[in-house]
Amino acid sequence: MPEEKKVRIDFRSREFILDHCKRSIEFFHPHCIDPNGGLYHFFGDDGTVFDKTTRVLVTEARFVFSYAVAYQHLHNEEYLAAIRHSIAYLRGPLRNTTNGAYHWVLENGKATESKIYTYGLAFVLLAYSKAVAVGVVEAKAYMDETFELLESHMFEPKHGLYAEEADAQWNVDPYRSESGNLHMTEALIAAYEATKEARYLDRAVLLADNICNRQAGLAKGLVWEHYREDWSADMEFSNANSALKIFRPWGYQPGHQVEWARLLVTLNKYAPAIWFVPKARFLFDIAMQQAWDAEHGGLAYSFDPSGAVCDWDKVFWVQVESIGTAALLALGADSEKDKYWQHYDRLWEYSWKHFVDQKHGSWYRRANRQGEMHFKEKTKAKLCVDPDYHIFGPLGEVLNMMPKAEPKTSGA
Asked: Which of 79, 26, 71 is nearest to 399 (CA)?
């Protein structure tokens, strides 16, 4: 018998990306909707809800984002209804009415953790901003309120960046982070896109400049994760809180290098600057150079200041953020298009084989170096609280930038 031909997938086609986003949202919708309020947060590999009582602030906010991007590109009115349903929960049980912030975790409707994180409030701002962008007009007031709350309590004008953590009385912790500022930049871009108010874009540019240029200048030109109160780089940072290790890992994070690169490309659309694209290319190129696993494929999770990989785990969001950024760099490049499309194809081929759940939809979350999954659940408390926000963020931006006429492919 003749050998069966292997079907080649055109990862670069608009139809493929749209279909992938559709399969992603359909993994969660509509059974993620809790008729009693908000959305369920924890799903097994087949989409079964296995925990109906735990709610995490960033998961609820990320759901709004995922639904909003899905609505923008797939135009299903049910997604808009889900956004309104979720925002009502953000404004209800998840809001801390005593200080104007939000609870971090609820169990059976009761707050069990209420520490304030810029990281968390950034996702609240992102959720409201994306809701406004798709026509949920009441979220405009919530968006402005969240920005002003951060302005009053967390923004540090002297440094042009946000502090990261405060207690319920808004006493700010000395720990400083690039991560909260990364997600604030993302949220501020979304706020600008929704309103065209210059203050949001100006602040996004300020944060990006201060992290990617000034702060990166303290760490070999790359984005370091952890800083002291005076914003000096804490190269020896060690996180004693196991519950926060997923949010505060040590080492250079390739995933954050490429996320910043993606945001710089987006900022260049709205406020063109000579440094945005070169810095984006630098961050992406170093991430690929240092973290790509030549033996098993995929990008490693972390590398140390010498450039050696210090955590070989493969995490889904690192791969998909890199996929999106590679496409944006290719779509915007006058030169080196082929290089970035080749990175894009290589990342997709690895992810398609190891992370994309071909049967149920969505992606598996975290594997060892060889591609063996540490767990099969798609969301899992303290290990992954992402309802595919990291799929809709980069791929949604690719769809925004991709011309209607398909880019020429190389048969990948």
From this structure: 71
Long-range contacts of 290-297 (CB under 8 A, 24+ apart): 290/252, 290/254, 291/254, 291/318, 293/369, 296/369, 296/370, 296/371, 297/346, 297/349, 297/350, 297/353, 297/354, 297/371
For 213-263, write each residue's pLDDT tens digit. Answer: 999 999 999 999 999 999 999 988 876 555 556 668 889 999 999 999 999
Write phi, then psi, for 92 (nearest 5 degrees).
Answer: -100, -105
Dihedral sign from CA coordinates of 22, 65, 109, 162? positive
- Report the candidate in 339, 342, 298, 297 with the shortest Cα–Cα distance to residue 318: 298
- CATH architecture of the domain 14-401 equals Alpha/alpha barrel (1.50)
Active site residues: 256, 390
Segments of the chain scoring below 70 in pLDDT: 1-7, 239-247, 404-412
Question: Quick one: 303 exposed, middle or buried, by C-beta within 10 A (0-12, 13-18, 19+)?
Answer: buried
Q: Give yes or no for a contact between 45 and 97, defined as CB atoms under 8 angstroms apart.
A: no
Q: Does the global pTM surpass 0.70?
A: yes
Radius of gyration for the alpha carbons in the chain, expressed in angstroms and rounded: 20
